[in-house]
Amino acid sequence: MKHVRLSLASGALLIAVAAVGCGSETGPYPSSEIKLIVQAAPGGLSDTVSRIMGSLVEHDLGVPVVCQNKPGASGALAFSYVTRRPPDGYTIGHGPVEIAMVRGLGYADVGPEDMSLICMVSRVAPVLVVQEEAPWATFEEFVAAGRERPGELIMANSGVGSIWHFNTLLLEQHTGMRATHLPYGGSTPGLVALLGGHVDAVIAGVSEVVSHVRSGRLRALAVFDEERAAVLPETPTTHAFGYEMGAAAWSGFYGPSGLPDTVRARLEEAFAAAFETEEWTTLCREQGLQPLFLDREEFEAFAGEQARFFGAQIPELVRLAGAGGS
Fold this sequence. Notes:
Helix content is 46%, strand content 20%. Helix 2 packs across helix 9 and helix 6 packs across helix 11 (296-324). By secondary structure, it is α/β, with parallel strands linked by helices. Helix 2 links the parallel strand 1 (34-38) and strand 2 (65-69).
């Protein structure tokens, strides 16, 4: 009888523990730490946006939001990781433009339709930069050098298939110049290589280069957009030279597919509140980010359109890269 009573007591204890565990999962969201997976190396645009936004939303959510970097394959490693996590809202990801690109690149069978998109918060234009002491004073001189000596110029990018690599291929397609492409695990190491004189040029986000341009270490030759960047008012656009090219980067957030509506709405609400803060406004103004908020439905429509755009463009640019030896 004693054995039976002990077994019953043990069973009751297990049931009680299980009940507590189930209660924590079905209780108010969130009730524990949230992991925010960043697809790029520390220090770049994606990392900056994620860490600033993460620090702002945790005040609203009342729990820590911890950023974890998982760079590689133009974000495909991070995207695949997040989409395989339980859709409980405790693992979310930074959703950059590459979520619309990796399927077309063949890096992973994942795209916006496989995610619970939460919101978009910013946009940033690409800019071509060289060292301040470089022999090319203008965009036209740089392009001319790439035409006259195909493949001699070495251009760093933030990874094969990344948005900045895509813009380098656009540069070649529209101008007829050819460069040798050198991929890095993000914009920051590519810029370090440029500052150290190991490469000739980099295309990166305005926000990633503005401090180096202001300090006089780098020279901005052209912004790949229709309008000049507010933080680089002296830098002309590629459109001004007759080249209507450029694909902006953007930043948003997402969770695994199947995220409950209540959880998704709570996260969107927290990011929307963070977007309205003075801290975010100041960061965007100082760093050259264009603040742009799209709610989950608007973000779904936008990301879907971007996926179709890159799905059509990437094969042609890959063919160009192969033909040009890039």
